[in-house]
Amino acid sequence: MLELEGVDAGYDGFQALFGVSMTIAAGEAVAVIGANGAGKTTLLRVISGLLPATAGTMRIEGVDLRTIAPHRIVEAGIAHVPESRRLFPRLSVESNLKMGAFIPAARSRFAERLDYVYGLFPRLKERRGQLAGTLSGGEQQMCAIARALMSSPKLVLLDEPSMGLAPVIVQQVFDLVRRIRAEGYTVLIVEQNVRQVLKFVDRAYLLEVGRIKASGVAAELLATDEVRKAYMGM
User: Fold this and answer.
1) What are the beta bridge partners of residue 206?
2) Which one of 47, 92, 157, 166 is CB 3.0 to 4.6 Å from 80, fit for a cystine?
3) What contacts 84, CB < 8 A, 6 or more positions away?
């Protein structure tokens, strides 16, 4: 579904990604792991058009993402759940969900998609009129994921969904991710909680200082000394 080949990117003369290549098949859950500053968030920003690639190719189902205007990437089937959730705190839960259905194809199916995400996340239906900024951390992440699903995406990008949350809430968030994966969505997740994320994804890429250093089946990466010592303190 998604193919990256030799992708470079950076900020104001600083190169953050060096020749990144990766593939994601439809229905897969794939993780990108690595330390702070490795380029994980940059990678997701490049895929979703928030930051332009400076070299390489990126395609989703054969469509060249580098030729699409950033505001049209959602129409190509990519929905991005950003780091720190980025909800509109002074708007209600339902208004935030409506923001996720801004593309024409989603607007015409708004009621249908709203029923779908409320069925997936009943707690959001209970809080539909509540201001998003007053939700708990776990509920805010639930709202951010639901907002992304409103556009009926082919690929969901999740950037550090457990960041800043208490351990008990972190488990709830990973349960949410498992739930959307079970619904058949293709997921690319960036996450520092290596132990948790490698338990439910199919494959993973290890990113170090902007370069892919290793990749493979998640269970096999979890068992490697490099990953266990560097990212799990074992």
Assistant:
1) 33, 214
2) 157
3) 160, 163, 164
